[in-house]
Amino acid sequence: MGDGTLRCRECGTLYPMEAIYVCLRCFGPLEVVYDYAALAAQSLRERFASGPRSMWRYEPLLPVARVPEIDLQPGWSPLQHATRLGERLGLRRLYLKNDSVNPTWSFKDRVVGVGIAAARAFGFEVVACASTGNLANAVAAHAARAGLRAVVFIPRGLERGKVVASGAYAPTLVEVDGTYDDVNRLCAEIAEEHRWAFVNVNLRPYYAEGGKTLGFEVAEQLGWRAPDHVIVPVASGSLLVKIHKGLHELRRVGVLEEVRTAVHGAQAAGAGPVAAAFADGAEQVRPVRPQTIARSLAIGNPADGRYVLRIARETGGTVLAVSDAQMVEGITLLAETEGIFTETAGGVTVAVLRELAARGAVGAEEIVVAYITGTGLKTVEALDGALAPAVTIGAGLRDFERHVLDRVLA
Ligand SMILES: *Cc1c(COP(=O)(O)O)cnc(C)c1O
Ligand SMILES: [Zn+2]
Question: Considering every ligand atom, which ligand is closest to the CA of 9?
Fold first, then answer.
């Protein structure tokens, strides 16, 4: 890709823009560097506003340019003022960023949009990923659109909806007998040996930048202001770190005047190593073996865990974990009050939001944004036994009157 630079997040060593992701000196993660001074001199608000109605309107703050012929147009999803859920929780300015409205129905289309454009710019012919489900869907779909070969690796036992939603795009779908953390380690080894573009391994510095657009978009949709609180589901931690980075970048380039956003992380208790470290006051995250039906969040050794801890503490946020039962309640509460059917990760987010509201950690008049990152249609198993069954009747008016009418009028 030529010009541009990567920098180690720990020791600051600079590297050229290549398909690399760890610092050779200290093994820290690499990050893309931008010329903020040059960007601050531009009229960025106007430039964004005149861009496409997708995440690519923020192209000046992304590491690669949009490639129109391979674009699936992720992003520019609704920001919904959640009046009914807000009333239940005592929050008047609660907003839901509904990112289940995307080409493959999760926020992963944003990161993969950037990752695939980078893979093409580097001249890769095979794109791959280690996935908990949604990422595999997105890589398979974007690769199909780009005419690239896709190889997606998932742990065994994922939800059927997620497996089918990858298979439909005809990638090579590899089910590994192990946890996501095993899959991820295997993919890092493969990336050492084969010139494949693993979007979340050797292309991670580029791919992860797509997550910033979930910070940019919310700020723009709020009329160019930063929320007082954001609640973000945490698996590897990348999305939370990038939403925070995106908001602060907007301040550095003069698009926002101030950012005082408290950043809260949401985990499932069965895969909650970051929440546990937060509660213990620890600086390092101790890996766990995941045990939760929130499979999209089932990462036991999160790559960005300690950055999540640092950001939550620095911004006055928290990292909380909720049980699977609370998560299911979160899914149904959101659907019943706001008409949004989310997957398990969204249920975790809503359950954590509910807990924060109950503790008074988010105020009635503060602007609170909860990120809903994927659709419930991929994880229908989570609601087994949780919903009232259908009323089954014969096709006659008498049947209707006898079995249905009283329930509706009751
Ligand atoms: C991947 C994923 C997340 C979390 O992403 P990280 O960046 O790994 O923390 C959250 N929600 C959904 C639906 C996901 O698929
Ligand atoms: Zn370093």
Answer: 2
Q: From the CB of 111, is ligand 1 less than 6 Å away?
A: no
| CB of 200 shorter than 6 A to ligand 1 | no
Integer Cα distance of 389 and 248 in angstroms: 47
Give yes or no for residue 238 CB within 6 A of ligand 1. Answer: yes
Centre of ligand 2 to C-alpha 31, Å, is 11
* DSSP track, 229-298: EEEEE-SSSHHHHHHHHHHHHHHHTTS-S----EEEEEEEGGG-HHHHHHHHT-SSPPP-----S-GGG-
pLDDT tens digits for range 325-346 = 999 999 999 999 999 999 999 9
Q: How far is the C-alpha of 113 from the C-alpha of 341, rounded, in Å? A: 24
What CA–CA distance (Å, rounded) separates 355 from 323? 12
Distance 209 CA to ligand 1 centre (A): 14
C-alpha span between 164 and 137 (Å, rounded): 9
Domains annotated on the chain, with CATH: 1-33 (no CATH), 39-65+106-206 (3.40.50.1100), 79-105+208-383 (3.40.50.1100)
Based on C-alpha coordinates, what's the Rg of the chain? 21
Q: Which of 244, 296, 327, 341 to mutate to test the pocket of ligand 1 (most atoms within 8 A of CB)?
A: 296
The finding on whether 315 has its CB within 6 A of some atom of ligand 1 is: no
Q: Closest Cα to residue 204, out of 30, 1, 15?
A: 30
Contacts of residue 308, defined as CB under 8 A and 6 or more positions apart, other chains included, come to 234, 237, 240, 241, 265, 274, 302, 319
Strand, helix or coil at 150? strand
The per-residue pLDDT of the chain, averaged, comes to 97
Mutate to test the pocket of ligand 1, among 239, 306, 343 (most ligand atoms within 8 A of CB): 239
Amino acid at 143: A
Q: 24 CA to middle of ligand 2, Å?
A: 7
Q: Which pLDDT belongs to residue 408?
A: 87
Q: What is the mean pLDDT of residues 175-192?
A: 97
**Residue type, position 164, single letter:** V
